[in-house]
Amino acid sequence: MSTLFEEDPTPPQRTGIFARLRARFLTGLVVILPVALTVWLIWTMIGWVDGVVLPLIPYDLTPAHFLGINLRGVGVVVFLIFTILIGSIAKGLIGRTLIRFGENLVNRMPVVRSIYSGVKQIAETIFAQTERSFETACLIQYPRKGIWAIGFISTMAKGEIASRTETGGALVSVFLPTTPNPTSGFLLFLPKEDVIELDMTVEDAAKLVISAGLVYPNQVKPEDMPAKLANPTKQV
Fold first, then answer.
1. How far apart are CA 51 and CA 182, in angstroms?
2. Which strand ranges, in their side-by-side order, compose the sheet holding 185-191?
3. Mean pLDDT computed over every residue of the chain
């Protein structure tokens, strides 16, 4: 039995070789995993496009007929060329006429009309190049005062939404994304004075939402911040 003043005969534990190897393995895993996952997703997507496009091409025109092997990515190249060709035709007078004729024909079909209209609106929203959506990230108090959430400012409320609300000022349309899937969420109409615009980019805000608060934008020292960033209550 040892006394209070006796030295502990147990020597201090040193980090063993297995512990060091484990730490290095985990470090290497953190470096490799994002790269490997990205490559796997791209490779899988290319294979999926090839599987959809190549069966539509006559076998005599495929690389498998000339080379004897299947080259991954040929379907992607064919899809890109075909899409560019269709886009070029659609911008011409003949293309616009054909598209207008086809849409008029589709609008006469009850079920097909609803599906086509919904898909067209989604495609135009996602791939429209004339304007960008969600150019600004913001902070709002949701679902009650004192609880803050990150949102994305889309537009100012207009039309019946703006005229029928019982507010004295302007309303802002804010999309409130969910975690970890930011493609779903809520559309909120908030008074302009209740929306705090953030200086972080939309990409940084999206990373913060997707990671559930684990990935923050690069932090800077308060003395290095510009004057506009030093004021946390900047409004829209």
1. 29
2. 185-191, 171-177, 148-156, 136-141, 196-197
3. 80
